[in-house]
Amino acid sequence: MDFLIVLISLAVSYLVGSIPSGYIITKAVKGVDIREVGSGNIGATNVKRALGTKWFFIVLALDALKGYLPVILAKQFFPHLTALPELNAIAAVLGHTFTIFLNFKGGKGVATGLGIFIALAPMASLSCLVLFVFVVWAFGYISLGSILAAFFLPPLVFIYGESGFYLSLVMAAFVIYKHRENIERLENGTESKFQLGKGKK
User: Fold this and answer.
1) CA nearest 116: which of 186, 173, 63?
2) Phi, psi dihedrals of residue 193, rounded to the nearest 5°
3) Overall pTM surpassing 0.90 (yes/no)
4) 10 Å Cβ neighbour count for 109?
5) Contact, 108 vs 178, CB < 8 A?
6) Consecutive 10-residue runs of the chain (201 residues): their mean pLDDT?
7) Number of Cβ within a 10 Å radius of residue 48
8) The dihedral sign for the CA sequence 95, 101, 104, 106
């Protein structure tokens, strides 16, 4: 019975993670395929380029929710399955980054990862969020904020003594790897800066 619960839970978590929030919203609001805008990524940063800052925060929240719900529901309804929250977390991130609805091409997992660790390690998540906001405010680079937040997540989880330390190591490595092109652009000085305001008309 537990095996069946785990199997169904993982499948549902993957499908929830696969919902391409940025693609759906950009298509509905402007009739535009987000994959043909800017970087071609379906995440919140690229949605901002197409629709403006308001939609950046909406997509960010929705993508975070895709990570939060599978974890928190597993913790609440199946507490005896102690590994299930983290297994659901992995399934949700894989769904977001390799969504079945867009030929297995999705986002970079930052917002979904944030939702996961709000459920698993809220203090570490809050600290990383503060760091992210500060870096974006000080330097103007969403990618740099994401990379540094991912880098500092594992030590913060460890320092606070919260759950998900080994998962945080995997997530940090995954997010940084997904930002390898951004790292090259940061080094070359060609990375786009984040600016409040409307996107392209």
Assistant:
1) 63
2) -95, 150
3) yes
4) 28
5) yes
6) 94 98 96 92 92 94 98 96 97 97 94 97 97 95 96 98 97 95 94 71 42
7) 26
8) negative
